[in-house]
Amino acid sequence: xxxxxITPDYTVSPQIDPEDLPAIAAAGYTTVINNxxxxxxxxxxxSAAMDxxxxxxxxxxxxxxxxxxxxNGDTVAAQLExxxxxxxxxxxxxxxxxxxTIVWALGEAGTRPTDEIISLAAEQGYDLSQMxxxxxxxxxxxx
Length: 143
Fold this sequence. Notes:
This protein has six helices and five strands, in the order ββαβαβαβααα. By secondary structure, it is an alpha/beta fold. A five-stranded mixed sheet has the order 1-2-5-3-4, sandwiched between helices. It is globular and about 40 Å long.
């Protein structure tokens, strides 16, 4: 696993394995958000397999696939809601962690300064600087 903490309560990772979920639970994560569409994964890593592994590990899992077509305000709101409903730290994953970071960033727009969002992502290896216009647009929509 390549877990990268964006904030104390929100962490991202590239694809995890079902076998990783007990260690994720032991590390204190209470909710895992799966941002990968099933079509991107073999059956061993699709939502049904991940759901079963999470249940066995005692971790809540939310399947919220993010694609170019689904990256919109509704998806951002659903991700925020999943984070708010968590009773502890959240680990979100996708293929590389980038989509999970982007959804977080858009959700934080208007709550945190754009420079801070970009900086927090960059500290973990995710360059969102090219997203400044989108982050500022999301911030204006909230304000």
